[in-house]
Amino acid sequence: MMMKTLGRILLGLVLLAAGALSPRGQESRSLPPPQTSGGKPVMQALQERRSIREFKPEPLADQQMSDLLWAAFGMNRPEIDHRTAPSAQNTQDIDIYVAMAGGWYRYEAKPHRLVRMGSADLRPLTSGQAFAKVAPVQLIYVSDYGRMPKVKPELRDLYAGVDTGCIVQNVYLYCASAGLATVVHELDRPPLAQAMNLRADQHIVVAQAVGWPK
Ligand SMILES: Cc1cc2nc3c(=O)[nH]c(=O)nc-3n(C[C@H](O)[C@H](O)[C@H](O)COP(=O)(O)O)c2cc1C
After folding, report:
1. Can you give the pTM of this predicted structure?
2. What are phi and psi of 191, to 5 degrees?
């Protein structure tokens, strides 16, 4: 019994050293460094930005996942912990959860990695529309009101919505540049919040499907 426990601790230490576990002991999926140059000129990406609701089921490559998440809300000035999208009073209240066929993850911007949260396929809970079961990636935007202690309570919903909107548009522009399909969409929040075991001060704002256009 003791040997087994020691073995688990050793394995945990090895995985932590290898970057496969977050400090809280959750399994993480490392991402390649984002490609932060290239892509289409911003005016062309704006010209091509649109909602696309028909997807192929093929997963995104690791590099695309890395670039997508960095474009969405990655660290673009790590020396001051600032991000690719603005946030009210720099609260950085939005967490991006990534739902895929094999499980769901939380994006951690500073180490630029995905922390595995569970093995369930949450995609069907993100929308009743057909794309929810087909698009390989659903980004679920969750505002942590615990990060807004100095924001007046009556402003928190507004800030969460605007902060999310900025990230959503980054994703639209990245997808337009990379030839990917995306659509931001409404959802039934309580069942998804329950499946994600969110705290009362974590609020799902919207979700956004991403994948290859059909
Ligand atoms: C807050 C918000 C909620 C949306 N909800 C849905 C939705 O539930 N389902 C959907 O198919 N599109 C949804 N959309 C996408 C809009 O329908 C789409 O942006 C609009 O029709 C304009 O099309 P375009 O994005 O191609 O310019 C939503 C967009 C926003 C900003």
Report:
1. 0.91
2. -65, -35
Structure tokens at 156: 């928190």
Q: What backbone torsions phi and psi does residue 188 show, to the nearest 5 degrees? A: -85, 105
The first and second tokens of residue 53, run together, are: 């609701």
Between the CA of 147 and the centroid of ligand 1 the distance, in Å, is 28
Pocket of ligand 1 (CB under 6 A): 50-51, 53, 129, 183-186, 206
The reported pLDDT for the residue numbered 4 is 52
CA of 186 to the centre of ligand 1 (A): 8
Which of 183, 187, 188, 208 for a ligand 1 pocket mutation test, highest count of atoms within 8 Å of Cβ? 183
> Does 29 have pLDDT greater than 90?
no
**Are the beta carbons of 96 and 72 closer than 8 angstroms?**
yes
CA distances from 125 to 10, 130, 185, 194 (A): 37, 11, 12, 10
82 CA distance to ligand 1 middle (Å): 28
Each domain of the chain, given as residue ranges in start order, spans 1-26, 31-213
Confidence of residue 210 (pLDDT cuts 50, 70, 90): very high
Of ligand 1's atoms, which has the minimum distance to the CA of residue 50?
A: 26
> How far is Cα 133 from Cα 138, in angstroms, rounded to an integer?
10
Q: Which fold has domain 31-213?
A: NADH Oxidase (3.40.109)
CA distance 61 to 119: 19
Contact in structure between 88 and 159 (CB atoms under 8 Å): yes
Protein residue with its CA nearest to atom 23 in ligand 1: 51
